[in-house]
Design goal:
There is one protein chain. By secondary structure, the chain is an all-alpha fold. It has two domains: 108 residues, no CATH class; 31 residues, no CATH class. 72% of the residues lie in helices and 0% in strands. It contains nine helices and no strands. It is elongated and about 65 Å long. Keywords: Membrane, Transmembrane, Transmembrane helix.
């Protein structure tokens, strides 16, 4: 995507503006990558706790300028639209990728709640709408510290089991944890 957008900007700059190729390549590469670099800087500032609104707005303005230049620099606007679309697509894909990484980092540190379970449209919402809406409502009402992420080993255990795990195993459980604790459990000991 980036390469296609760069080709479009270079050809537009050479044909329309009459800029030599050796000057056009670094100039439009700076324009095309400028929005990404400024957004990377704002992402760093956001990790440090700032909002970085000015950096995000500048990044969007640079990306919009690159898209506009790609469209306006080509006399055939169908070709310019293709190159503009590739420029916008590259920026938006990168923006989504860094946003996903930011949310993942926040989830790991506890800054965001775990992702809720995904309910299929046909398998859940259409076939069982009442049950699915109850499950969604219960998940949203449950206190955050009691939520267990989907797919974790203790998903189906009662809340008391989670508390016991956090506090440590009870003394009678520790006595059974020998090399043959399964045999004693089967025998009823």
């Amino acid at each position: 995507m980036l390469l296609v957008a760069l080709v479009g900007q270079v050809t537009g700059a050479v044909q329309t503006l009459g800029v030599p190729m050796i000057v056009a390549v670094p100039a439009v590469a700076t324009l095309e990558l400028g929005g990404v670099v400024v957004m990377a800087n704002s992402d760093l500032r956001r990790r440090l706790g700032e909002q970085a609104i000015a950096s995000r707005l500048l990044s969007a303005a640079i990306a919009a300028g690159a898209v506009t230049f790609n469209w306006a620099a080509h006399p055939d606007h169908l070709v310019g639209g293709f190159f503009s679309g590739m420029s916008a697509l590259g920026y938006l894909v990168w923006l989504m990728h860094t946003g996903n990484q930011r949310r993942d980092r926040l989830r790991v540190t506890g800054g965001l709640p775990p992702t809720p379970p995904a309910y299929e449209v046909f398998g859940h919402w259409i076939c069982h709408p009442v049950i699915t809406s109850r499950a969604v409502h219960r998940q949203s009402r449950q206190p955050r510290h009691l939520r267990v992420p989907e797919g974790s080993p203790g998903r189906d255990r009662p809340p008391t089991a989670h508390r016991r795990d956090r506090q440590g195993a009870a003394p009678q459980d520790q006595n059974r944890r020998g090399p043959d604790h399964r045999r004693h459990r089967r025998a009823g000991v």
